[in-house]
Amino acid sequence: MANYSFMSMFKKYVSASVLLVISALLALVCANSSMKEGYFDFWQNIVSISIGEFNFFSHNGHDMTLMQVINDFLMALFFLSVGLEIKREFLVGDLSSPKKAMLPIIGACGGMLFPVLVFWLLCPDNADMQRGLAIPMATDIAFSLGVLSVFSTRVPTGLKVFLAALAVADDLGGIIVIALFYSSDLHVDFLLLSLLCVAIMMIGNKLKYHNKFFYLLTGLVLWYAMLNSGIHATIAGVITAFCIPSTLQNGTGYYLNRIKENIRSFPIIDACKTDTVILSREEINKLKSVESAADKLISPLQDLEDNLQGLIGYVVIPLFAFANVGVDFSSMSLESLFSGVGMSVMSGLVVGKFVGVLLFSWAAVKLGVVALPKGADWYSFSGVCALCGIGLTVSIFIADLSYASLPGCGAELLSQAKLGILCGSMISAVLGCVLLHIFLPKAEKK
Fold first, then answer.
1. What's the burial of 44, exposed, middle or buried (CB within 10 Å: 0-12/13-18/19+)?
2. Residue 444 belongs to a domain
């Protein structure tokens, strides 16, 4: 089960990473060409879904822009998908037992602590700049696994599993940071509505109510309540994911027996007969019963995770990258990259991530707590540690939370942070590729 879930995850993120890179490049082209004015203005258009005077996309009485809808609503769907993945990994995947989870979690702890430390040491002692401490914490799972896929069968499966599991643990750390440090001006009324939504979903879970649309609809209300409560709205996606049932309503045997009974009682049709077969109402009902039972053999958690795969990988993440990666280089200089926020973010990703993941993993192995992934040595493992510095999607998201709302210098600091993320991710990808190319076993020539 664990191997199957990992391979499906790997294929999903590798294909999504291609679109992510294309979207990021298009954003940079648009932001640095004659289209830049239209590009930046486009994201400031107001979005409205209204019933009378009520607008679903309103934040404390203010209508949301297209950029805000992408960053607050569509990214809530992204975090819903991430939450489902985290829950599945802890239940049946690579984080489901201490033996499997220990090394990625220890590596992720080092990979979150050291980038923050590097940022803090390099960033000027300025309260506004220091708001971005958490930016280099995240590893982009799609981009990092996409780069790793370049080496195909040369990479031991254990290293692929380690990187995927570490990125999932990283996402969980990022979610906790967003919930704790990017909430402000709490509104009690909406906070109580949020708690009510969570209580309703938990009761539904306790009563073994498995209709996923019930949880999605309640999660939608939760998103609106959290948007206006002061807690960042994307956390609603994670909470909803954790409330969605991971079990079957009546057990596997019940549905398999129902399918067998319906098929057994269905009339045998001559396979050579080419005429159209007109089914009776009873036969149609039997087929519908088979279809219903087959659908219920998949838990709501895995069914929803599978259904969200295409939307997240091919729409949400590319659109987020296209809207957020665009940095206008015309008003920037090399000083923007080698000082201040830009330098701090870039160093946090390239140096902090690499040293943190490698050092914590090395210490855990030397102390006998865990073992290196099967088929890996410290040289090839260091290449994967370098890839952990690829922090695109979640890093940009945290950068936006850190600086976008700051008056005055916010826009400039956000641009510097994005530049640091792009350069840091690129350097980490190249460094990882070089190390892996040198130290992985050479591919056999056919």
1. exposed
2. no
